[in-house]
Amino acid sequence: MIHLDPDFKSLTLKQRKIALRSLYVITKHADKHRVSGITQLHLVHSIGSSLLGVDISVDPTDINENTLTTLGKEFSDVKDEVRHRLFQLFILVELVLDPMPEEATETLQEVATILNVQDDFIDIARKYSQGAYGIAATDLARKGYMGNPDLVKQGGGMMRVNKILTDPFEVDDDDPHLLKQWRDLEICKTGTLGRNIWEYYQGRGFVFTGQKGSVNPSIAQHDWIHLLCDYNTTIEGQLEVFSFMGSSIPDVKGFSFLVAIISLFETGRLESWGGGVLNADKGHLDLPGMPERLADAIRRGRICNKDVMYGIDYFKYKDQPIETIRKELNIVPKDKDVNSPGVWHPDGITSYQRENGNKAYQPTLPKQHLGDDL
Length: 374
Known about the structure:
The chain is an all-alpha fold. It has 2 domains: 6-131; 147-364, no CATH class. The chain has helices spanning 13-25, 35-50, 66-74, 80-95, 102-115, 121-129, 133-143, 149-158, 176-183, 193-204, 217-229, 235-248, 256-265, 290-304, 322-329, 351-356, 367-373, and strands at 272-273, 278-279. Strands 1-2 form a two-stranded antiparallel sheet. The longest helix has 16 residues, at 35-50.
């Protein structure tokens, strides 16, 4: 289906077509015969249909530098926030290139100048193009959404952590009061958010935070979003959920989540993230249908337009039906044409999670798979 991101509803159809054509301009840096070049083209097309409300096939011979000149003229009077959101799509498209030539970041800087946008993530892309991955990782942590100490402290309160967090991925493995709140979710009624996340943890063998061996509270916080958005716990589902999160956060620094997840699970430029919970595993955006799933997650995030990471205390919603909460938070359904297995779909859980979780709370396997396990 064709969708229009709320950020771009103020744009004319002509402006949106020019924006899409300009995104195609920056694909000139890609080798169309390399996997990442093909993925980049698919991603641009998905951005057009899912976010810009434009579904057109662009003839490469019609794309040249004059397109960017036209972009500057057409967007000179467009609101700052709209131009900034658009520019971050340019960064996203360039980030999937592997390798990323330095010329790519030069073009990004040109587009930033044309759109009159200042964005810290250009510097991170530049470091990537220079092979300075370690420095880029440090910059991402410092300049991104989680680089704000006051915001991390606020998040600790929302996550009901009983200490002051000094690092977004700091563990909290001796917090009996927090642990009790997680365990008490078992008594929530069937169909509620609380009962669903309790079963989600049981079925996947996850350990409730607040005790030894548990993940840090920030990673636990993102599990609520998995359920509310119905994004599964495979790597492909992680690409979706973090893209949703980064897009839903009103502050443009939320884009750091997209930078991190692409760098982990598409290019492998980021070795690990989330306090070592998530580790690099390349090439997952290259899988069939993934560019469409990523673009749809961005669309849903922008419609939500709430800080779903450190801005919500999900325990307050534990006794409410999931559908009720989705409506309140404006979490719209996935595009029906996008093949995105959900949390309770048989393909929505990894083999490792099946082996380590309680089978009573796992998505039911089809009969052919059940036979394979006998």
